[in-house]
Each structure stands twice: as structure tokens, then as C-alpha cells.
Design brief:
alpha+beta; 434 Repressor (Amino-terminal Domain); 2 domains; two-stranded antiparallel ribbon; 12% strand
Length: 137
């Protein structure tokens, strides 16, 4: 690969010279470099790293888990609203089989699905870990 002068366009046979023209760094031939003052490339700027904050240092939100009785909560809320599994799935942009599997405990919803169910059914499916520990004891 032959380098060409970025000013005159002729092939550069020797080592190219870097010059600054109006703030732009160009690689030029020796003849064009004689008309300009050669520039050294600027030293790379140091990368400044910000200290990372630990999540537990900034937020003290309790750890939330899915209520163990999620299936009956979802089913009773859906029936109370007069919706079929198909209708609820359509409103939530989920397949009806997902709603069916949640209600039959074949599928435990992740936090995203649980929050969608909570939004559309107006129920609470999340409980803190401490509540579960105290209820289980």
C-alpha cells in the first residue's frame, strides 16, 4: 500500500511527515512538509475513571421475590376483571399459554412479567424476602 501526500496527492516515497493545518493533522510528503512546520501527534489524553458506587451503598431497597401464591392471585384477579386468558394475553402482549402456565404454576414469572401482571391486573405479586422468612418460620 503506497501512501499519498494529503496535500499534493503524490506518492510518499520516504517517511511521511505529520503537519497541522487549521487544526487537522495531515500526512504529507517531504516537499509539502518543507512549507509547513512539522507537528508531533498530541499525546493521548489520560482516561479518567470515576469510582464505581456499589448498588447497596446508594439504594436500600429490600430484595423482592415473587409471592408463593402468585398463581391463585393472578387467576382470581383475571376472573374478577372478567377477562379470559386469551384477552389478558392480548392486552399484555403475551401469549395466552404464558398466562395459562402462570396460573397453573408451570411457569414462575420473572420480575418483568410479574410487574406486567401487576400493572394490568392491579395486584401485588412481589413481597420482600424478610416477609417470606418471617412467614415461613
Amino acid at each position: 500500500m503506497v501512501l499519498t501526500c494529503e496535500i499534493c496527492g503524490s506518492p510518499i516515497r520516504a517517511t511521511p511527515v505529520r503537519v497541522s493545518i487549521d487544526g487537522a493533522m495531515l500526512r504529507v510528503c517531504q516537499r509539502c512538509a518543507g512549507r509547513r512546520t512539522p507537528q508531533r501527534p498530541p499525546p493521548p489524553e489520560p482516561i479518567l475513571l470515576r469510582p464505581r458506587l456499589a448498588v447497596h451503598d446508594t439504594f436500600s431497597e429490600p430484595e423482592l421475590e415473587i409471592d408463593p401464591d402468585y398463581s391463585s392471585i393472578v387467576k382470581s384477579a383475571r376472573e374478577r376483571m372478567g377477562l379470559t386468558q386469551e384477552a389478558l394475553g392480548r392486552v399484555m402482549n403475551e401469549k395466552p399459554s404464558v398466562i395459562s402456565h402462570v396460573e397453573s404454576k408451570k411457569l414462575k414469572p420473572d420480575l418483568i412479567l410479574a410487574r406486567k401482571l401487576m400493572h394490568y391486573l392491579h395486584v401485588n405479586l412481589l413481597v420482600s424476602s424478610s416477609e417470606l422468612d418471617s412467614a415461613g418460620s
